[in-house]
Amino acid sequence: MHLYRLLLAFLGLLAGLAFGALALIIGIDVIARNLGWFNLPWVLEISEYVLYGATFLAAPWVLAENAHVRVDILINQLPASLARWLDAMINLCGLLVSAILVYYGVLATWDSYRLGSLIFKELIFPEWWLLWIMPLSGLLLGLEFIRRSWQLFTRPGNAAPSGNYLPEN
Predict the structure, then answer these.
(1) Given 60, 71, 112, 129, which is the most exposed site by the fewest CB atoms within 10 A?
(2) Whole-angstrom Cα distance, residue 139 to residue 109?
């Protein structure tokens, strides 16, 4: 479990660093262009890839930290046992969506690799370099939904009726 948490923290850190580097590069491009020094034509394209990649890489960490947006108006009004059941159903739905993400992500990544598909924009590179992030994220999200469900039923004191989980030490 410790290695799993370290992996999620590493991916969250990597995503944060990517967003920070993106902000820096965009700032440099804007300043340099406005001063007439130079233009970085690949910045817009890189920003698209960073937004996609960092979001998918950070998603499992965000879920593990319970830092995602959660509308809990209904669940806060329910008795603890019913709230726990609803939490379990939410985790099951999340697991199903994660499985679909993994399945179709693997198919798309494999097809892209097999066919040698390239992305032709300012930069030219194999498409699968971007696509592999989606099934990895889906797999880690699925594991996190399983962990949350396991924790919900094996350590019920760890989950408040609102579904807010206490962080694991």
Answers:
(1) 71
(2) 14
Provide the residue ranges of all domains of the chain, joining segments of one domain with +: 2-158
Length of the chain as a residue count = 169
Q: pLDDT tens-digit profile of 112-140?
A: 999 999 999 999 999 999 999 999 999 99
| Secondary structure of the chain in HEC code, one letter for each residue | CHHHHHHHHHHHHHHHHHHHHHHHHHHHHHHHHHCCCCCCCCHHHHHHHHHHHHHHHHHHHHHHCCCCCCCCHHHHHCCHHHHHHHHHHHHHHHHHHHHHHHHHHHHHHHHHHHHCCEEECCCEEECHHHHCHHHHHHHHHHHHHHHHHHHHHHCHHHECCCCCECCCC
Which pLDDT value is given to residue 160? 46
**111 has a pLDDT exceeding 90:** yes
